[in-house]
Structures are given as structure tokens and as C-alpha cells.
Design brief:
Strand content: 5-15%
Shape: globular
Helix content: 25-40%
């Protein structure tokens, strides 16, 4: 789940059954889109949680195995880039051809859960659906549950970003003490920032226009940013929204302190310029490329593992005045209420949730099962760097916190306004005023 909270790093192309090279022999229909257009045909939409090539090969086999068992069912599979997914899902659910089965994340569940777009899975699987909620954090359960106990989706896997260190850059900087708090990150990032002449930030002759590597990556794209900005709010004792969900939760002293800390890092010279890339994919490899010493990373993919031989490791999560927290993500599967073939869609869902099949997929995409995985869970998944990284990050699940379960999703708007403040386009007070008005307006529309 490469965007954990949310969105992983995006992949730009749509992949349909035809693009995957799959035809009737694999049980896929040749038609595109559509919510069960034809007897026994279901559409299955998902974002590329793992690498795109892996999603192709894995789902080709998954669907072939399923349709060999369900011979009267055809599956039309579509991989949708993260940046395009929410608009496409929204249009699909509003129209007459939604995805029969779809992969969801918590912000999307906030959008669709209470709108009638999703079917209550208890009406399809009865009490058997409850087994999919065992050992799942309450926040993830709440994200899939309606006001009357409806199960609008089932949780599949978990994950979060790890704070990851390029050991080669750290050694070049003289191995300064690793940051323990969010305040520590700022001078640490400055110590790891060098120009191409070998001058460190702050040294005489340092050229800020000719950087060899920054101390820390600070992405300005929402898909990456959502996975660490909220950490700051929580660590300082604030939240995204107020407890009653009717206003922002960061207008007080705690939220202001968190925001001021983030802006101080952005202004420090030790972090990448927020406008360095507009393409979300471009942010993903900076630490591995040696362009940043410290980065919040979703995982290390097989492609990255093969391409980069950089020495890296996950480090302890930083603390704030209120403690240590990290944004957790949850992947769900849902069935559209307008699906014309809910029974077949539910059969595919059950097939995917087979214990062995589910474990194999979760390990392969290098995320986490719910609960604490055993120490050898990632043995053989990748090289020693990757195994150590995944084991360290998985052990940090005790710090995981999910974003609020809401009847609306204000996160992208809030992030945009945060960025206006970080970049000096608006004052802190004006940003707080604007975000407050927006959240209040969204909350007022909820019945």
C-alpha cells in the first residue's frame, strides 16, 4: 500500500484486461468498465498498491485461478493511477456502471460510506463477514461501518511510512546524533545538506543553488505529504478536525506549534524545496538516489531494491510534546450498491481473503497484516536491507494512528492551505481562518 494513508506513489497508465494481455482463457471479458454488464461479468477496480508490473502478474494469476473455479463468471480488471482514482470512482458510483468490486482507502470510505454508494456486505455474507474484522484496529473498523452497523467494506491490510536514513550521507556528515524529537530533525537535516563542492549548509562558500543532496525530503504533493504532516499535529497534541468533527482541530497552541515547526523545517535550507517536483512519482526515490539524507518512505519496492544499492535503514520515529504517532493506512475492498452481480463480486472478495493468498499478497507488496507480524514474516521478501527495514517499520505499529473517520474528506483542501502557509503565500492566522471556514461548511452539509 504505497500510499498508505492514503495514496501511494502514482503510476500514470490505466490497465484494463486488454492491456494486461488477458482474454477469455483467463476469465476476463473483453469489454471495458461497467458494473456487471452481462450475466456473470463483474468489474474489479484497484489502484497499484504494489509495483505496476507486480499488479499485472499477480492479478492475472488471481483472476485466472478464480475463474477456473467460478466458470460462469468473467472478471474485467482495471488498474487506475492513484491521481485519477478518486474522480473515476466518484463518477462510477454516481453513474450506472460502478465497479462491482473496488479497492478503497480510508479517505475514500469517508466520502462513499454514507452516500448509498456501497453495499452492506452483511446482506451478502451474513455474520461470516465478521471474521474479516478480527484483530483489526477499531479505527479501521469504524471506517467501514455504517450508523446501523452496516459493513460497507472489509479491511485487508495495513501500513505506514517509515522515517528512513541514507547511511552514506549520514556518514559523510560525520554521523551526527539521530533525531529523537521533531525539533531535532531541523538541525539534523541542515547537517546532512551539502552542495556539489562538498560545502555543508552554513559553511563559508556554501552554494544553495548547486545542491548535491538535502538533509531531508519534504514533498509538496498531497499523496506523499498526507503520510507525515498529520504525524506532527498528533505529536504536538492537535488533530485534523475538532472532537465533534465540526471544525479544524489545529487552531490552538498545540496545532500552531506543530505548523510553525514544519514551516521552520521548510525554511531551514535543509529540506528539499516543496516545488522541486510536481510529479508525485519523482519524490519517491530521492533518499535512494542520494539526493536526500532522510525521507518518510512507504516501503522499498522490488524495483527500487534492484535499481539502488544505497545503504539505508529505518530509524526510530520522532517524538513531540504529546508523544509519538505515525499515520496508519488501511486498504479495504467494497462492493457497489448498484452492482448487478453482487453475488459474484462477493465470491471474488472471499477468494482474495483466503488466508494463504492474502498473506502472500501482503508480503509481496511489502505492507503489514493487522496485529504484530512475527519477526521472520519478511524473511526472503528482499535483500537484507529490505528485510531489516520492513521488520523495523512493522514493529512501529504500536505508534500507528488512523486519520479521523468522518462523513466528509477535508484533507486535500487542508494540505493545500498548509502549503500556502509553508511557502509564505498566506499567514498562519489567515490559513487557520480559511481551513476553519471550509471544514465548518463541509460539516454543515452532513445530515
Amino acid at each position: 500500500m504505497r500510499d498508505i494513508q492514503s495514496r501511494p506513489l502514482s503510476r500514470r497508465t490505466f490497465l484494463s484486461a486488454t492491456a494486461l494481455g488477458l482474454g477469455a482463457a483467463a476469465g476476463l471479458s473483453a469489454c471495458g468498465g461497467g458494473g456487471g454488464s452481462g450475466s456473470g461479468t463483474i468489474s474489479f477496480w484497484k489502484t497499484p498498491v504494489g509495483d505496476l508490473a507486480f499488479e499485472q502478474s499477480y492479478n492475472k494469476k488471481l483472476i485466472a485461478d478464480f475463474t477456473a473455479k467460478q466458470k460462469d463468471t468473467k472478471v474485467n480488471f482495471l488498474v487506475i493511477p492513484w491521481d485519477s482514482a478518486l474522480p473515476k470512482y466518484t463518477a462510477g458510483y454516481a453513474g450506472s456502471n460502478p465497479p462491482d468490486l473496488a479497492y478503497e482507502i480510508l479517505p475514500w470510505m469517508n466520502k462513499f460510506r454514507g452516500t448509498g454508494a456501497l453495499a452492506d456486505l452483511r446482506k451478502l455474507g451474513g455474520s461470516a463477514v465478521d471474521k474479516y474484522f478480527q484483530n483489526v484496529p477499531q479505527g479501521a473498523i469504524d471506517g467501514a461501518t455504517g450508523k446501523n452497523g452496516e459493513r460497507y467494506a472489509v479491511p485487508f491490510s495495513a501500513g505506514h511510512f517509515g522515517l528512513t536514513l541514507n547511511e552514506e550521507i549520514w556518514e559523510k556528515a560525520g554521523k551526527p546524533p539521530l533525531p529523537v524529537t521533531y525539533d531535532d530533525i531541523i538541525p539534523f537535516a541542515q547537517k546532512l545538506t551539502f552542495d556539489k563542492a562538498g560545502k555543508r549548509l552554513g559553511e563559508a562558500g556554501f552554494n544553495p543553488k548547486n545542491i548535491a543532496h538535502w538533509g531531508m525530503t519534504w514533498a509538496g504533493t498531497p499523496g506523499a505529504e498526507t503520510n507525515y504532516v498529520w504525524n506532527y499535529l498528533w505529536a504536538y497534541g492537535a488533530d485534523i478536525v475538532s472532537k465533534d468533527g465540526k471544525d479544524i482541530g489545529f487552531a490552538g497552541d498545540e496545532g500552531r506549534a506543530a505548523l510553525q515547526n514544519m514551516k521552520k523545517l521548510v525554511d531551514s535550507g535543509g529540506a528539499t524545496p516543496m516545488g522541486l517536483y510536481s510529479d508525485q512519482d519523482a519524490w519517491g526515490d530521492l533518499m535512494l538516489q542520494g539526493k536526500a539524507g532522510l525521507q518518510w518512505m512507504p516501503n522499498i519496492s522490488p524495483i527500487q531494491e534492484q535499481k539502488y544499492k544505497t545503504r539505508f535503514r529505518a530509524i526510530d520515529l520522532p517524538k513531540g510534546p504529546a508523544g509519538t504517532f505515525v499515520v496508519g493506512g488501511c486498504g479495504y475492498y467494497s462492493i457497489a450498491s448498484k452492482s448487478k452481480n453482487k453475488k459474484a463480486a462477493y465470491s471474488l472478495l472471499e477468494f482474495m481473503f483466503d488466508d494463504a493468498r492474502r498473506k502472500d499478497y501482503i508480503r509481496s507488496i511489502r505492507v503489514y497484516p493487522f496485529g504484530d507480524p512475527p519477526a521472520d514474516y519478511y524473511a526472503g521478501v528482499g535483500d537484507k536491507r529490505v528485510e531489516a527495514y520492513l521488520t523495523t517499520v512493522a514493529a512501529q505499529t504500536k505508534y500507528v494512528r488512523l486519520t479521523p473517520v468522518l462523513p466528509f474528506d477535508p484533507q486535500d483542501y487542508i494540505l493545500g492551505k498548509f502549503n500556502d502557509y509553508f511557502l509564505g503565500r498566506t499567514s498562519l492566522d489567515d490559513m487557520l481562518k480559511d481551513t476553519s471556514a471550509h471544514v465548518k461548511q463541509l460539516a454543515s452539509t452532513v445530515r
